[in-house]
Amino acid sequence: KNEVEQSPQNLTAQEGEFITINCSYSVGISALHWLQQHPGGGIVSLFMLSSGKKKHGRLIATINIQEKHSSLHITASHPRDSAVYICAAGLMEYGNKLVFGAGTILRVKS
Amino acid sequence: DGGITQSPKYLFRKEGQNVTLSCEQNLNHDAMYWYRQDPGQGLRLIYYSQIVNDFQKGDIAEGYSVSREKKESFPLTVTSAQKNPTAFYLCASSGSGTSYETQYFGPGTRLLVL
Questions:
Q1: A62, A71, B25, B50 - which has most CB atoms within 10 Å?
Q2: Does the CB of B99 have a partner CB in chain A at under 8 Å?
Q3: Cβ–Cβ of A48/B101 closer than 8 Å?
Q4: Mean pLDDT of chain A
Q5: Cβ–Cβ contacts within 10 Å for residue B66, how many?
Q6: Does B43 contact chain A (CB < 8 Å)?
Q7: What is the mean pLDDT of residues A16-28?
Q8: What is d(CA B74, CA B112) in angstroms, rounded to the nearest whole number?
Q9: What is the torsion angle, in degrees rounded to the nearest 10, for the CA atoms of residue A2, residue B65, residue B79 and residue A98?
Q10: What are the pLDDT digits (tens) for B11-35?
């Protein structure tokens, strides 16, 4: 079992829909990261969370430490949001290393 | 512009050959990382370095080697001992190497075996 699990693996949405991607982890964490990987392969960091909620434009990330769960929400989705979304956890038992989920492939249709 | 560069974009390896992937950063970061990405799997850590002339093995270091002679550079060599090297390789850097920091990624190198 992976220490970091994402769901769903694949997601297809219609433009304008509200999207939620989930990430759960099995042990205590120091930080939780959300990343976006574009079709060409480049990865950019979206958020780093250790508690609560963060918002940037149409993206919102939340984390519930007690439930060991984080969500990434996209409001008013657009075809340009199509990408792979990856969560990565700084698991305390691994020191400063990040453990990555397998990613969620998002396709937004116009 | 500050950032991380990786070269080449595509690399072909023959059986028994060692190949070296380049990673350079001008962000003045102390920590650098090499990850391997395979289809359907999360990124896996190969090696990381938090300071010049020091580096540690990650989860899948067998068949790989690195050096960190300069702060800006962290090349990865895929040796002939790596029996399944076909993958997408990503280099990243961060300020000092804690899990609280944003990691900045290069564009990646796709390695294929001939």
A1: B25
A2: yes
A3: yes
A4: 94
A5: 21
A6: yes
A7: 95
A8: 21
A9: 20
A10: 999 888 999 999 999 999 999 999 9
Do residue B100 and residue A90 have CB atoms under 8 angstroms apart? Answer: yes
Mutation target for B interface from A1, A25, A43: give the one with most B CBs within 10 A: A43
A42 and B48: CB-CB below 8 Å?
A: no
Best CA proximity match to A85, nearest among A23, A15, A35, A20: A35
- Whether the upstream peptide bond of residue A39 has omega within 30° of 0, thus cis, is no
Find out whether B105 and B92 touch, Cβ atoms under 8 Å. yes
Confidence label for B100 from pLDDT (cuts 50, 70 and 90): confident
The amino acid at A51: S
Say whether residue B13 is in contact with chain A using an 8 A CB cutoff.
Answer: no
CB of B97 within 8 Å of a chain A CB? The answer is yes
Please work out, in degrees rounded to the nearest 5, the angle formed at the alpha carbon of residue A98 by the alpha carbons of A93 and A104.
125
pLDDT above 90 as % of chain B? 82
| pLDDT, tens digit (0-9, with 9 covering 90-100), for A59-102 | 999 999 999 999 999 999 999 999 999 999 998 877 778 999 99
Q: Tell me the DSSP string of B39-69.
A: TTS--EEEEEEEETTEEEE-TT-TTEEE--S
Residues of chain B with Cβ-Cβ distance to A88 below 8 Å are: 42-43
Q: Is A96 in Cβ contact with B108 (below 8 Å)?
A: no
| pLDDT confidence bin for A1, thresholds 50/70/90 | low
Tokens of B105: 């990624």
